[in-house]
């Protein structure tokens, strides 16, 4: 997998310099999918932009999405005729855009499209994410046919979560890029030293 074909999909308001997505981009040469408007995201515009970038890739891409970027991936996959252009997706901290508060903040992003993704996928979710209850995150992973990782109580899994370069998640990305899926019995070591297992939903 060429580093340039690993596509970084930030969420609402983009990912700042200390976010693990930005750190990975700088360290590994991954490609950020830039949106025309990060502050007032329109689902149709974000889907069209992802389609545009994927069509320019010379081989199937791997998507690395955070927050609203996860909902973008699900919406794109439900509408695109070019899903073969994605090899796999790492989906981190999907927000519940069907919640009343998020419906108001992010109009047009509900409902969350919940149908199986036609490529390998892995969802990381925190047990205390302020934008998505754990049960909802698991439900999204199940609907998408994704494996699920409980990342422990780490908030929205963003720069404020203190993840740094987040090597554990990057190891999972490497497995996705290689075409392998993490076995359900393999433990996941959080930065707090707690063990969490991968689950196949």
Describe this structure in words.
The protein has 201 residues and is α/β, with parallel strands linked by helices. The protein has a single domain, classed as Alpha/Beta hydrolase fold, catalytic domain (Rossmann fold). Helix content is 32%, strand content 19%. It contains six helices and eight strands. The protein has helices at 20-28, 43-56, 68-79, 100-105, 134-144, 167-178, and strands spanning 6-9, 31-32, 61-66, 86-92, 120-125, 147-150, 187-189, 195-200. An eight-stranded mixed β-sheet has the order 2-1-3-4-5-6-8-7, sandwiched between helices. Helix 2 (43-56) packs across helix 3 (68-79). The longest helix has 14 residues, at 43-56. The model is unreliable at 181-201 (pLDDT under 50).
Strand order of the largest sheet: 2-1-3-4-5-6-8-7
User: Can you give the helix content as a percent range?
Assistant: 25-40%
Radius of gyration: 15 Å
Termini, distance in Å? 26 Å
CATH class: Alpha Beta
> Which stretches are poorly predicted, pLDDT < 50 over at least 5 residues?
181-201
What is the number of independent domains?
Answer: 1
Count up the helices: 6
Oligomeric state of the chains present here:
single chain
Gist of the model:
The chain is of the alpha/beta class and 201 residues long. It is 32% helix and 19% strand.
Features:
201 residues, alpha/beta, 6 helices, disordered C terminus, Rossmann fold
Topology:
Blueprint (H helix, E strand, L loop, with lengths): L5 E4 L10 H9 L2 E2 L10 H14 L4 E6 L1 H12 L6 E7 L7 H6 L14 E6 L8 H11 L2 E4 L16 H12 L8 E3 L5 E6 L1
Parallel strand pairs: 1-2, 1-3, 3-4, 4-5, 5-6
Antiparallel strand pairs: 6-8, 7-8
């Amino acid at each position: 997998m060429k580093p340039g074909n690993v596509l970084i999909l930030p969420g609402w308001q983009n990912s700042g310099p200390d976010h693990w997505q930005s750190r990975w981009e700088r360290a590994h040469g991954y490609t950020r999918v830039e949106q025309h408007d990060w502050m007032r995201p329109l689902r149709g515009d974000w889907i069209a932009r992802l389609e545009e970038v994927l069509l320019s890739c010379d081989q199937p891409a791997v998507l690395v999405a955070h927050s609203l970027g996860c909902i973008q991936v699900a919406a794109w996959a439900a509408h695109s005729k070019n899903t073969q252009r994605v090899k796999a997706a790492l989906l981190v901290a999907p927000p519940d855009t069907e919640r009343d508060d998020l419906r108001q903040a992010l109009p047009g992003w509900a409902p969350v499209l919940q149908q199986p993704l036609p490529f390998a996928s892995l969802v990381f979710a925190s047990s205390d994410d302020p934008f998505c209850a754990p049960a909802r995150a698991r439900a999204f992973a199940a609907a998408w046919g994704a494996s699920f990782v409980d990342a422990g109580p780490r908030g929205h899994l963003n720069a404020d979560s203190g993840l740094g370069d987040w090597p554990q998640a990057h190891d999972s990305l490497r497995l996705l890029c290689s075409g392998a899926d993490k076995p359900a019995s393999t433990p996941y070591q959080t930065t707090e030293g707690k063990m969490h297992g991968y689950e196949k939903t």
